[in-house]
Amino acid sequence: MNEVEAIERATVAAVSPLAVEELDGWLLPFDDGTVKRARSAVPLHRNPVDSATIDRIEDRYDSRQFVPAFRLADVPCFVALQSELEQRHYVGDSPTCVQIGSARRMREVAPPGAVPADVDLAPDDAWATLFLGEGFDPVDGAHRVRALSRAQGSLYASVREGRRTVAAGAMAFGQGWASVHGMRTEQSQRGRGLAGRVLAGLAQAALERGFEQVFLQVDAQNMAAHALYRRAGFSTQWQYRYWQRQQWPR
C-alpha cells in the first residue's frame, strides 16, 4: 500500500463515518454530521479520473440521500477532474494541508519543564465540554466529539486544571500511522504552550505503541497551528480542498 492510500484510509477510519463504501479506487464515507472528512469521497491514488467514475460516485451518494462531495488533493492529475466538477456546479473550499512528522520530534515540542498531557482510552465529559466552549461552534463541536469518540482504538489527551480541561486532542492508529485530530485549546488559555503539551502526550503514547510515523491535517489559513506543527517537526506533503455540489441535478 502506498503512502497516499495508507493516509487516506487512516483519515476516514479516524472520523468513523456511519458507513463507508469502496468504489473504483475511491473511499466513499457517509455521515450526517458536520465533519467533512466523514462525508466526502476521496481517491486512494493519484491517477486521472473520468466522467463515468464521477457519475457512479454521485449515484451512490444520491441513492443514500446525501449531497455528493469530494476531497481532492491540489495535484496536477486532478486538474481536469476539478474542472469537470466546476461544470457540475461544485465549488472547492476549505483548503487543508496534510502534514507528516515523527513521534520522537513531536514529543519535544512541549515547553521546557512542562508536563505532557494526560492520555486516556476514552474521552471524559470535561474533554467533550471543551469542544462546546467559547470561540467554538457548539453544533460542529458536538459532531466532532461524536465522530472522534466512536473511532475504535483512539486515545484522548487532556491538559487539566482543576475540573476543567483547558486543552485537548485525539490520536488514532491505522495503516502503520498515528494521526492527530481534534486539537483544541480554551480560548482564554492560548499562548501558554498547552497545545504543545497535548502533542507531547500523544507522541509518547504513539511511541509506547510502536508508532513512529505521524500525520495530521491543518487548515491552510491557520498560521498559529502551522507554527506549532513546524516546531513539532511537521511538514506539508500536499494540500486538498472539499468540493461541494451546490444544487441537486435536474
* Whole-number tally of structural domains: 2
Figure out the total of helices.
8
Q: Kindly report how far apart the N and C termini lie.
A: 39 Å
CATH architecture of the largest domain: 3-Layer(aba) Sandwich
For the record, the CATH class of the largest domain is Alpha Beta
Structure classification: alpha+beta
Tell me about this structure.
- With 250 residues, the protein is α+β, with helices and mostly antiparallel strands.
- The protein folds into two domains: 101 residues; 139 residues, 3-Layer(aba) Sandwich (Aminopeptidase), CATH 3.40.630.30.
- The protein is 33% helix and 31% strand.
- The protein has eight helices and eleven strands.
- The strands form two sheets. An eight-stranded mixed β-sheet has the order 4-11-5-10-9-8-7-6, sandwiched between helices. Strands 1-2-3 form a three-stranded antiparallel β-sheet, with helices on both faces.
Give a concise summary.
InterPro entries: Acyl_CoA_acyltransferase, GNAT_dom, Rv0428c-like_C. This protein is α+β, with helices and mostly antiparallel strands.
Key words describing this protein structure:
single chain, Aminopeptidase, eight-stranded mixed beta sheet, three-stranded antiparallel beta sheet, globular
Topology, pairings included?
Blueprint: H1 3-15, E1 19-23, E2 26-30, E3 42-43, H2 51-63, E4 69-73, H3 79-87, E5 90-102, H4 103-107, E6 118-120, H5 125-130, H6 138-150, E7 155-161, E8 164-174, E9 177-185, H7 194-208, E10 213-219, H8 223-231, E11 235-245
Parallel strand pairs: 9-10
Antiparallel strand pairs: 1-2, 2-3, 4-11, 5-10, 5-11, 6-7, 7-8, 8-9
